[in-house]
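Model it.
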Amino acid sequence: MNSGLPVDSRPTKRELAVNSDLDELESVLTWFERQGHPDVPSDLWMQAQLALVEGFTNAVRHAHAHLAAPQQVHLSLQITSQAFCLQVIDHGEPFDFTAALARVEAEITASGQNPLAREAHWGLVMFLKLQKEYGWTISHCRRDDGRNELSLSHPLRADESADGSY
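Modeled.
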């Protein structure tokens, strides 16, 4: 519960590594819920949870689908007084996330149809919506260690009301 005192400026960083298996999703969500932080508005928390589920399932279904040896998905959550940051790290092949987002956005714009009427790439549609309508910064990069990192961050502002509205 937020006591109205200044937010602790020390970062809260938590990490989890789980097997690349959809059966681990419950463990991922349990871990995430245990990280609850009084300074993160509930709507932002819910958006992050949806993005986490999408990032994790994409790592399992796509990034790790063709890898022979069992892999792990690494998760990292860092909360500071200024920002909420979440990373999903996988061992898959390089992926051009920026190009994929641009392609989906162009398809939606050109078709003029409801993005939810799509048969595929709902996750990319969701990430676009988080960026454009909810102020998330989302990036995907190839790390120096050869892994992929999906990063999602959102500012935490001191002027947010207690109910999480902006």
